[in-house]
Structures are given as structure tokens and as C-alpha cells.
Design a protein that fits this description.
The structure holds 2 protein chains of 2 kinds. Chain A is of the alpha/beta class. Chain A has a domain at about 5-95 and about 165-250: 3-Layer(aba) Sandwich (Rossmann fold), CATH 3.40.50.300. In chain A, about 30% of the residues lie in helices and about 30% in strands. Chain A is built from 8 helices and 14 strands. Chain A has helices at about 45-50, 75-80, 100, 115-130, 145-160, 175-190, 205-210, 235-245, and strands at about 5-15, 20-30, 35-40, 60-65, 70, 85, 110, 115, 165-170, 195-200, 215-220, 220-225, 245, 250. In chain A, the strands form 4 sheets. Chain A has a 6-stranded mixed β-sheet, sandwiched between helices. In chain A, helix 5 (about 145-160) packs parallel to helix 6 (about 175-190). Chain A is globular and about 60 Å long. Chain B is mainly α. Chain B has a single domain, classed as Orthogonal Bundle (ABC transporter involved in vitamin B12 uptake, BtuC). Chain B has helices at about 10-15, 20, 25-40, 45-60, 65, 70-95, 100-115, 120-145, 150-170, 180-185, 195-215, 225-245, 265-280, 285-295, 295-300, 305-330, 345-355, 365-385, 400-429, and strands at about 175, 335, 385-390, 395. In chain B, the strands form 2 sheets. A two-stranded antiparallel sheet of chain B has the order 1-2. In chain B, a hairpin with a 3-residue loop joins strand 3 and strand 4. In chain B, helix 6 packs parallel to helix 13 and helix 6 crosses helix 18 (about 365-385). In chain B, about 40% of the residues are buried. The chains are: A alpha/beta, B mainly alpha. Chains A and B meet through helix 2, strand 8, helix 4 and helix 6 of A and helix 1, helix 2, helix 14 and helix 15 of B. The structure holds adenosine-5'-diphosphate and magnesium ion (MG). Adenosine-5'-diphosphate binds near residues 16, 19, 39 and 45 of chain A.
Chain lengths: ~260, ~425
């Protein structure tokens, strides 16, 4: 992990009216690395991700991408940099098929008309590159897909555009055991493709199994940003989440909300 | 779930997308369609069944007047106005919105056309009428998309607003005659028999081209036999209909023969074709379905949802205006009732009966045509049945407005029940 981070946010603050949600938050994401983002409900994980994605532009602080300072004021800025977020609610159009969802908003055209053939082709290639084996036809409507398949489609949508940073917000929260396993493998595969992967999760076993680094948020602050090693334990992470510190790791001073 | 999937697993191409590569044969294609129907995806099947049932019933009850060439052509002309207004409303339905004032947009636009034609030449009159229709639609779209009022409320207010404008334009109880031959001929005019053949053959060629192209690009998902049957059926239908309509349908001693395709038929076909291309082959159309299906997903995909909503209402306005010209041309005049009364409900009903969902994101332009046929068949057939004496009941006038309203209302309720039920069935999966 001696590389330079691909995405680095530092001293980021975000308020919603009187509510100060993010306090001087730092986060680093490295290429080919899965960084888990954990924390209790309301800790500010989603807000941090939405700031990076341009949905809630930051109030103060800096965002550095590939060594250069950037401003992300809207979702377009984020996707132009190659930052894609897969939200908890997935945001797929159930009335459209897989190809249509993957290319939504960025459809390929030929002389003004949709180029369905190429889009179909690229959908198959993308799914194949993720070793997705459970989808029968790329022309299936999303309404006919299972939860895991939908998650896969949402992830494929993020990968399709040669994204450099992909952040997943609780991708396995609504899935059964087998489908969770499938999505965890998919997360590793993204990292193997050289993508800087962010993973919000409440499942500590998943976090330890899948990620290389863990960033822990506590009451809107970044309590810890540590590497996952053999000694990283479930209990340690839970302690960090609930009290913001564990031994000499974490926030040492008293924190008021 | 396949637990053996590992990164770089060789051979995935053999198992992935099994359906995409596989050649589908005729039997599979049929059984696929049947399972789609079972899953609640009924499409326009109910409308086609309704047309078949209605034609059979009216044909059996009253063959001598219902099953005549004159009535067939008359029926096509009766349906035309509602069909175009139904297409207009479909643009809002696809978004999950509604335009309750589309009928009055049609009326106002027709009134502008008729009054301008008293003084102006054709082209500027038509342009002004079209502009007014677009402005009314854009106004509605602005209120819905930018101000954020539910379309139901905005267009309910518009019903009064536009009706008021219509009354001011044609004056209470007044009526503006149309004497321009082109506008008069829009509905009621016919193509010469030779031109009729030319038009239907060109239409057939175009349809065959589109089908063949679709079949080629489907990688075997559409079997050749299915494409061939569709093209063949279209050919038979077009040849039969053109032959029928090219036969003189004038009453016994009419001084001049009435023959040829009613002008509305190719005009509606062209509108249908253009709107189909817009909806299924362009980014704009794709985004329209996306916003109707999940506006939040569309927004995150970078689609400007507000402008898209606004533009859809503008298109709705323009199409309603064209529908207004059809309504006016059928009676060669505009009065305060043009586009009023049941026009709007028939238009919404036509779209929904044809299979367009009231919940957004689902539907085709062809649905407006099929549903329009159903809703035009009901009054057409009932009028021809007229007064009858029923056992136990006594005399009943099937041609009365009461019976017609009840039948059209019932058809609309049945269609929206089918829509709601198939939707909940789709969600259970
Ligand atoms: N749009 C918003 N407006 C006001 N407060 C918000 C908004 N979004 C989040 N918050 C507040 O910010 C805090 C952090 O929320 P969130 O980022 O969703 O936490 P997490 O994802 O870690 O559960 C919460 O107290 C939440 O109520
Ligand atoms: Mg959250």
C-alpha cells in the first residue's frame, strides 16, 4: 500500500442547515484496493459518498484525484473523472431491460438512432468480464431479475465506463447467503481489474473477508483508517464503530455531537 | 447461483447468456409469448380481442348496416380524432402523468385554425394553430415540471381555462365553418384508387423492411417464421382492406362514386411510424420510458427529468392540436363542443384499453390506435342497432348517449383493472 492514493479527500466538512454532518473527514482510496467504509447508522457514510459523487457538494476541504485537486459540484463532474457509485436503492428502471439500463443516459447512437447492436455486444462483454454467469439474456427486463442479479447489473453499469473508482453502498444488505457470496466475489473482481473499490457494509465478516483497508466513521468524523491484517478482528471493528476507538487506534479525545 | 464462478474462469461464454445466442424456433417463440402473457404482460392482446368480439357481435346483430363498406370507412374516420388525441395523451401516460385537458387543447387549436382560415391563407393558419397547441402543452409542462404541481391538478384547471379560451374564440353557441378544401378533405376525403394502392404498397414495403431488419438484428431471438407470418398477415390485411375501400361504397343512386382509402388512414400511419421511431429508436424515447419507470434512476443517469417532462407535454399539445384538426375536419366546423364532452375520456381510455399503463413507463403508440378502434366501434355499432324491443325490458335505444357512455365507461374500467392487476402480478415475481 505504498502507492499514492487515486482518490483522496481531506478535511472535508458538510452541513445540512444547522446539522454538521461531516467534520474534517479524510479518506484515501487506492487503485486495485477494496476500502471498506463502516460506521453506525447516521455516522455520515452515505453523506461522504454522496459528496464524492457530487450529489451533496462539499462545504470545505479538498478532493484530490490522481494527484490533482478537483472540484466535484454535480454527478456529471464525478462520472467525468471515472467515479461511479452504486446506491443502496440501485436506481434501476424495472421497465427497461439490462442493456437499456446499463447505457441509460449514455446511449450509443449511429446517425441519430440508437445503436442497439453495439450496446448489446458491450453489455455481454462487460458482464462476461465480471464472470457473471447467472443472466440468461441481456434483453431480460430488470423486473424479472433476482436481487443479486440486480446488484450485478448495477455494478456492471458502474464498470461499463472504465470507471476508476467504484463505491458500493451496502450491496449485500438485502441478499441471501449465496447471493452475498456472489457479490463479494464480484467486489474482489473489480479490485483485480485495478479499480479503487469503496464498500459500505454493516457485515464485519464480509468486510474482513473482502477488503484491504477499513475506514471507520464515528459521529461524522473519520475515527480510523487501517489496513486489514490477520489480526484485524470482528470485535475490534465493532468497538471502533460503537465508541470511535479501540486501544490506541481511533479518536482519543472526547467527542461531542 | 453458480458457486463455482471464479475470476477468469475459462469457458464462461458457453454458459452465459444462453438465451442470447440460441436460435429460437417457432414453437419456443409462441410458448415464450404465452408465458409472458401468464406473467401479466398482456400488451395489446385485450384490445385485439375486444375488437374481434365487438365486430362479431355487431356483425351478427346488424349485418346489413354494420358490415358495409360505407360504415367501415365511416368508422375509420370516426376513430381518427380520438386516436390522435390518444397518442397525445400517451406521451404523458408514459411518464406516469396525465393530461385531462388534451381534448380542449384540440378544441382551442381547431378554433384558432377555423377562425384564422376565415381571413388567412392555409399555411399561416395551420402554423399558428400548431404553435398555439405547442404553447398550451408547454404551459402545462411548465406547471408540472418546473412549478411542481401534479399534472392531474394542472390539467383539471386547464379544462376550465382552455374551455374558456375556446368559448371566447368561437363565441357562446356559435360555430365557425371551415371551407378550405384541404382541411375539409383531411377527414372525409379519399385517395384515388391508384394512389390508394401505391400508398398501401409503400406502407407494406416499409413494414417488411423494418421487420426483416429487426429479425436480422435479433441474433435468432425472433425466428424467421414469426417475422414471415407477421409480414404475410400485414400483406393480406392491406390488400384486403385496400381492395374493399377501392370499391365504390356510395349509396344506391349517388351521383358520384365514393372510393379509395380515406385520407386519414395514411396520415395516421405516418404519424404512428414517426412517433414509433421517436419512442423506440432515439435517446429521447428511451429517456421518456426511463423517467416513466423510475425518475430517480433517470436523474442519476444524468437525464434532465424536468426538461424531459416539459417537452413531453409540449409534444402532447402538438399532437392534440393535430387531433383537433381531425375533429374539426370531420364536421367541417368548430363549435364549443369540439374536443369537449367525452373526447378526453375516450382518448385516455383508448390508450389504456390499447395496453398503455396508467402507472408510467409502459406502452406503445399502436396501443392508441387499437384502443381508439375499440372505443369508436362501441358507439358506431350501438347507433346502428338503435331502438330495439327486448323481452322483459321493453323498448331500449342502444344508440342513446346513456347506453354509449355506460359501455365506454365500462370498457375503460375493465382496461384499467387489467392494467392494475397485471402490474401487481408483475411485482410479485
Ligand atoms: N439531506 C439531508 N438533510 C439533512 N440531514 C441529513 C441529510 N442526509 C443525511 N443527513 C443527516 O446526516 C447524518 C449522517 O447520515 P448518513 O450519511 O446517511 O449516515 P450513514 O450513511 O452513515 O448511516 C444523519 O444524522 C442524517 O440525519
Ligand atoms: Mg447510509
Amino acid at each position: 500500500m505504498s502507492q499514492t492514493p487515486l482518490l483522496e479527500v481531506s478535511k472535508v466538512n458538510k452541513r445540512f442547515g444547522p446539522v454538521h454532518v461531516l467534520h474534517d473527514v479524510d479518506l484515501k482510496m487506492y487503485p486495485g484496493t477494496v476500502t471498506a467504509l463502516i460506521g453506525d447508522n447516521g455516522a455520515g457514510k452515505s453523506t461522504l459518498v454522496k459528496s464524492i459523487a457530487g450529489i451533496h457538494p462539499i462545504d470545505s476541504g479538498t478532493i484530490t484525484f490522481d494527484g490533482e485537486a478537483v472540484t466535484i459540484d454535480n454527478p456529471k463532474d464525478a462520472s467525468a473523472l471515472g467515479i461511479e457509485v452504486v446506491y443502496q436503492d440501485l436506481a434501476l428502471c424495472e421497465n427497461l431491460d439490462i442493456v437499456q439500463n446499463l447505457f441509460l443516459g449514455r446511449e450509443l447512437t449511429e446517425r441519430g438512432l440508437l445503436d442497439e447492436k453495439t450496446m448489446e455486444q458491450r453489455t455481454r462483454e462487460t458482464l462476461a468480464s465480471l464472470s457473471v454467469r447467472t443472466i440468461k439474456s441481456v434483453r431480460q427486463r430488470v423486473s424479472s431479475l433476482s436481487g443479486g442479479q440486480r446488484q450485478t447489473v448495477a455494478i456492471a453499469k458502474a464498470v461499463l465506463w472504465d470507471s476508476k473508482v467504484v463505491i458500493l453502498d451496502e450491496p449485500t444488505a438485502a441478499l441471501g447467503v449465496a447471493q452475498t457470496e456472489q457479490v463479494n466475489k464480484l467486489v474482489r473482481r473489480l479490485a483485480e481489474k485495478g479499480i479503487a473499490v469503496g464498500l459500505i457494509s454493516h457485515n464485519m465478516n464480509d468486510v474482513i473477508a473482502v477488503s484491504d483497508r477499513v475506514a471507520v466513521m464515528y459521529l461524522g468524523r473519520m475515527a480510523a483508517d487501517i489496513e486489514v491484517t490477520e489480526t484485524t478482528s470482528n470485535e475490534q471493528l465493532v468497538e471502533l464503530i460503537t465508541s470511535g476507538r479501540s486501544g490506541d487506534v481511533g479518536i482519543q479525545e472526547e467527542v461531542n455531537q | 447461483m453458480n458457486e463455482n464462478a471464479t475470476p477468469n474462469d475459462a469457458g464462461f461464454a458457453l454458459t452465459d447468456f444462453a438465451l442470447d445466442g440460441a436460435k429460437v424456433d417457432f414453437k419456443t417463440a409462441i410458448s415464450d409469448r404465452v408465458s409472458e402473457l401468464r406473467a401479466g404482460d398482456l400488451g395489446s392482446l385485450p384490445a385485439i380481442l375486444a375488437i374481434a368480439v365487438l365486430v362479431t357481435i355487431f356483425g351478427l346483430v346488424n349485418p346489413s348496416s354494420f358490415l358495409t363498406l360505407l360504415n367501415f370507412a365511416n368508422f375509420l374516420e370516426q376513430a381518427s380524432g380520438v386516436i390522435v388525441i390518444a397518442m397525445a395523451v400517451s406521451f404523458t401516460l408514459l411518464l406516469g402523468e396525465i393530461d385531462l385537458a388534451a381534448g380542449f387543447t384540440a378544441g382551442v387549436s381547431a378554433a384558432v385554425l377555423a377562425t384564422r382560415l376565415q381571413e388567412w391563407p392555409l399555411v399561416p393558419s395551420v402554423l399558428l394553430a400548431a404553435t398555439v397547441a405547442v404553447i398550451l402543452g408547454t404551459f402545462t409542462g411548465y406547471m408540472v415540471a418546473k412549478v411542481g404541481i401534479p399534472s392531474f391538478v394542472v390539467t383539471l384547471a386547464n379544462v376550465l381555462l382552455f374551455q374558456g379560451i375556446l368559448l371566447l374564440l368561437v363565441r357562446d353557441g356559435g360555430s365557425v365553418r371551415i371551407s378550405d378544401p384541404l382541411v375539409k378533405g383531411l377527414v372525409g376525403g379519399t385517395l384515388s384508387p391508384i394512389l390508394s394502392w401505391l400508398v398501401s404498397l409503400v406502407g407494406l414495403a416499409l413494414y417488411a423492411y423494418v421487420m426483416i431488419r429487426k429479425q436480422r438484428n435479433s441474433h435468432g431471438a425472433i425466428p424467421r417464421s414469426v417475422a414471415a407470418i407477421k409480414v404475410g398477415a400485414a400483406a393480406v390485411a392491406l390488400i384486403v382492406v385496400t381492395t374493399m375501400l377501392n370499391t365504390n361504397r356510395a349509396f344506391g343512386r349517388a351521383p358520384e362514386p365514393i372510393q379509395g382509402l380515406p385520407t386519414v388512414v395514411p396520415i395516421i400511419a405516418i404519424i404512428l411510424f414517426l412517433l414509433n421511431v421517436l419512442l423506440t429508436r432515439t435517446k429521447y424515447g428511451r429517456h421518456l420510458y426511463a423517467v416513466g419507470g423510475n425518475p430517480e434512476a433517470a436523474r442519476r443517469a444524468g437525464i434532465n427529468v424536468a426538461s424531459l417532462r416539459l417537452s413531453a407535454f409540449a409534444i402532447c399539445g402538438l399532437l392534440a392540436g393535430i387531433g383537433g384538426a381531425f375533429l374539426a375536419s370531420r364536421v367541417n366546423s368548430v363549435d364549443p363542443n369540439t374536443g369537449a364532452n367525452d373526447t378526453l375520456l375516450l382518448a385516455v381510455g383508448a390508450a389504456v384499453i390499447g395496453g398503455t399503463s396508467l402507472f408510467g413507463g409502459q406502452g406503445r403508440m399502436l396501443n392508441a390506435v387499437l384502443g381508439g378502434f375499440v372505443l369508436a366501434l362501441i358507439p358506431n355499432g350501438l347507433t346502428l342497432i338503435g331502438k330495439q324491443v327486448l323481452p322483459l325490458w321493453g323498448e331500449i335505444d342502444f344508440g342513446s348517449s346513456g347506453i354509449k357512455f355506460i359501455c365506454a365507461g365500462a370498457a375503460l374500467l375493465i382496461a384499467s383493472s387489467v392494467d392494475a392487476l397485471s402490474r401487481s402480478q408483475g411485482q410479485v415475481r
